[in-house]
Design the sequence.
């Protein structure tokens, strides 16, 4: 979702997003789309992909040493590697985190 594969209002922009029905259960809260919008804005300002911004943020989290990226194409791997060279400002990190709203764990009923 943070790579821009889904959009508010039901848009599905990749084959996986159009066929992954399980994800439909996970990404239903409007705040999820608010976070994606913040990632999109920062990515646009930086001139990089949403995936790169999302991974750069994740790699900056304490304790994260090996995120699972789910690369299905060589381009996905290249973006993941490129994310290691992107340092977000404190202001950018705050913008990415501001829309977050805790919600119950889903998908493991």
Sequence:
């Amino acid at each position: 979702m943070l790579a821009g594969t889904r959009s508010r209002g039901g848009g599905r922009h990749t084959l996986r997003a159009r066929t992954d029905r399980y994800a439909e259960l996970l990404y239903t809260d409007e705040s999820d789309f608010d976070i994606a919008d913040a990632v999109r804005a920062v990515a646009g300002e930086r001139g990089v992909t949403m995936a790169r911004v999302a991974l750069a943020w994740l790699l900056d989290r304490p304790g994260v040493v090996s995120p699972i990226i789910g690369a299905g194409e060589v381009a996905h791997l290249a973006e993941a590697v490129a994310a290691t060279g992107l340092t977000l400002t404190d202001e950018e990190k705050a913008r990415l985190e501001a829309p977050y709203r805790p919600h119950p764990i889903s998908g493991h009923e």
Remarks:
- Residues 6-97 form one domain.
- The CA atoms of residues 43 and 49 lie 6 Å apart.
- The longest strand covers residues 6-7.
- The mean pLDDT is 85.
